[in-house]
Amino acid sequence: MTATAASDKMTVSSMRIVLARWLVTAVLVVLAVVTLYPLIFTVINSLKTRAAYSADPLGFLTDITFENYLETFERMKVWRLLLNSIITTAGGLVLSTVAALFIAYAVTKLKMRGGNYIFLFVIAMLVIPSQVIIYPLYETILDLGFGGTYQGLILAYAAFGLPLGTYLLSAYFRAIPDELIEAARLDGAGDIRILFSILLPISTPAIAALSILNFVWMWNDLLLPLVIMGGSEKKTLMVGVALLSGQYDVSIPLISAGLIVALAPVIVVYMLFQRQILSGAIAGAVR
Amino acid sequence: MAETANLATAPNRMAKRDPRREGAAGSRRVFIRKETLIALLFVLPGLALAILFKLVPLLRGIWLSFLETRGFEDPTFAGLANYRTMLADPSVHDSFRNALIAFATLPVWIVLPLVLAFLLFQKTPGWKFFRAAFFLPYMIAPIVVGIMFRQILAPDGPLNAVLRAIGLAPLAIEWLNGPTSALLALTAVALWSFFGLGVLTYLSGLSTVSEEVVEAAKLDGAGFWRLLFHIIMPLLKSVIGYWAVLCTSGILIWMFPLIYALTKGGPGTATVLPEFLVFTTTFQFLDRGLGAAIGMALFVFVAIVSAFVVRRMYVEGAQKK
Known about the structure:
Number of domains of chain B: 2
Oligomer: heterodimer
CATH superfamily of the largest domain in chain B: MetI-like
CATH architecture of the largest domain in chain B: Orthogonal Bundle
Number of strands of chain A: 0
Largest sheet of chain B: 2 strands, antiparallel
CATH architecture of the largest domain in chain A: Orthogonal Bundle
Structural class of chain A: mainly alpha
Radius of gyration of chain B: 27 Å
Number of strands of chain B: 2
Helix content of chain B: over 70%
Helix content of chain A: over 70%
CATH topology of the largest domain in chain A: MetI-like fold
Strand order of the largest sheet of chain B: 1-2
Largest interface: A-B, 103 and 104 residues
CATH topology of the largest domain in chain B: MetI-like fold
Order of helices and strands of chain A: HHHHHHHHHHHHHH
Distance between the termini of chain A: 58 Å
Strand content of chain A: under 5%
CATH class of the largest domain in chain A: Mainly Alpha
Distance between the termini of chain B: 9 Å
CATH superfamily of the largest domain in chain A: MetI-like
């Protein structure tokens, strides 16, 4: 009697556990569908003909066409926009990281009066977002003669990426023992050599995290390139997409193809660096 | 600071006491000066960037907010006129009211990623896939997200098709055309593109929680929610605080591309947030003075919120004494 009651209880509680597991999985699956569906929907639309789309906007693919991609490439001048995005993102990324490396080295490894104040000043610039100073920033870039140029956008990207880079690299350099630098100095290494051939290789994880973060926001940013480049030849991919979607004669399949082209490079980066990104280095880095 | 100051003055005192050591002390001072010089040289490029493209524009923005600028005419000094206009302007009120309404959704922004992170943390089957899937939207440009969701939220789009299919036809409305539903939709899309970062942030916080703590609580019979609210949340207090700050500043300054793509601020002013108003006032209505004044008002809020992040960074990255 008691034995069966106990086993009944066991099965009830184990059933509850199984049920809870299924419920959890179901919730996660629904959320994953909500997360991924908009992307799948856009991919499907980008492969539909205009006629197929207007006949059945929500349906699955009946036959695949690459017309929309060909038209996007021609109409948006995608190659040129890609080149612009690559130049400005790479320029901003490199300049921002190098400037941050120098500051981080100076404030953590060199004897410097007020090093902490300089560190504080640079990271405090984080409280000034581009959105609130967008016109005066544009004016300043114009005054420097960089309006509508790659240099203008690169310098702005570098400046806005600097606080986070300085913080990340400083925190990382702090953890590297000073003895290592003293030893290199006794061997006759100068500061530049210590920074680039000793500290830089050790700091690869921090620099990787920083570069991924900077790549994502610089590549994806709209406001700075929109204001600095406007509709010029040097506009970035995101500005191109924004302007394309504003044109009245553009079909949904065509826009969808434009969107896929714009997000493809980021997806490639995500696939390549999945491990680094998801391991928490990024989230931990922002923290 | 105090230490370096001592280093610089100590040789001086020694030199006075013992003239024979003057040579050594002198070279020590030269050495310090050379190092300081190099340090200054090293911080120069970064400082120039920060000053030229952040501090100077901020100061110019403050000055601009005191100028009367109409169209392309030369600006004239106008004192507080722009601020007075701003305080009386209904669209400014609307934009800040909209931001307040968006803030009301913050609990969802904070709790949803936490629940998901905790589920993944317990190594639910397929957790690696879910983690990758949830983070994907964060990688996609907000402008792309916005244009994508214009189709999803269209009156005959997939969202409404699903609602009709599951018998919720009355909910299948013109999402971007009603004032309340448009703001709600905008916030929901922002959450869609942003929650994955929260999941990762919480996961990296959870990785510091020892599994024994969780196991012990389970043996004591704590259910999922009790475990989450009474054990995990107190342990993650600082991560939750950090994430809340990030979400708050996100609502204030990361919505521009979404608004630009989804609603352009409409219907009426229903989805105008302060950052979007700065942009339209400056570039559409060409009232740069008023735009700068609104920008400064927004800046005060953003600065207060992000000062918490800066403080945290400073504590972690500054020289410890």
